[in-house]
Design a protein that fits this description.
alpha/beta; four-stranded parallel β-sheet; two-stranded parallel sheet
Length: 191
């Protein structure tokens, strides 16, 4: 985003620069984190179906957690409650207050279901959205996309690597928030 940094070649990711310099990339071959149903899409989308899964569904089933999954053996769902994106007070990032409020509601449901707050993380690529949320690798993850607009701009989701990171942080379950019209845009998944 910084023109001076871009002019110095910093628009290219560090790993891309290493490949250009002759370093041979080594790809992840086996994943040890995600429930099998969470693993399936990233494996097919980002690893051409070659990523192996070392985790079984029983290993990633929490019987003492009473969260209302649509399908208990598939601990994921898409939460659609639209709000309009806005610009953060810094003027350089996006936020979506409606979506942030819905994240709070989902976290409250996790807490009520028996999940400790330290087991739940919220992942967002926008500093403006981050100011009202937090994110990291956790047992249960809520990726908050923030983008919801009439022209269907998807911002950071144009980069499949960022999408991969957002979708692969959870061990036991994931609830994705977002605008389905924006997220169904073909370039969002490399199409």
């Amino acid at each position: 985003m910084n023109k001076k940094a871009a002019g110095a070649g910093l628009t290219q990711w560090l790993f891309e620069r290493l490949v250009v310099l002759g370093n041979r990339p080594i790809r992840l071959q086996v994943q040890y984190r995600m429930h099998p149903s969470l693993f399936e899409f990233p494996s097919n989308m980002f690893y051409e179906g070659r990523l192996q899964n070392s985790v079984t569904a029983p290993e990633r089933l929490r019987k003492n957690i009473d969260f209302p999954w649509h399908a208990p053996d598939t601990p994921m769902f898409f939460y659609q409650k639209l709000g309009q994106e806005g610009i953060s007070s810094s003027g350089t990032s996006f936020l979506n207050r409606t979506e942030a409020s819905n994240v709070e509601k989902i976290v409250a449901k996790f807490l009520k279901a028996g999940v400790m707050s330290s087991q739940t993380g919220i992942v967002t690529p926008y500093k403006g959205q981050y100011s009202v949320q937090e994110g990291r690798e956790k047992d249960y993850v809520i990726p908050s996309r923030a983008r919801s607009n009439e022209h269907q701009g998807i911002g950071f989701l144009n980069d499949p690597r960022r999408l991969n990171v957002a979708l692969t942080r959870a061990k036991y379950g994931v609830v994705i928030l977002g605008n389905p019209k924006v997220l169904s845009k073909p370039s969002c998944f490399g199409g």
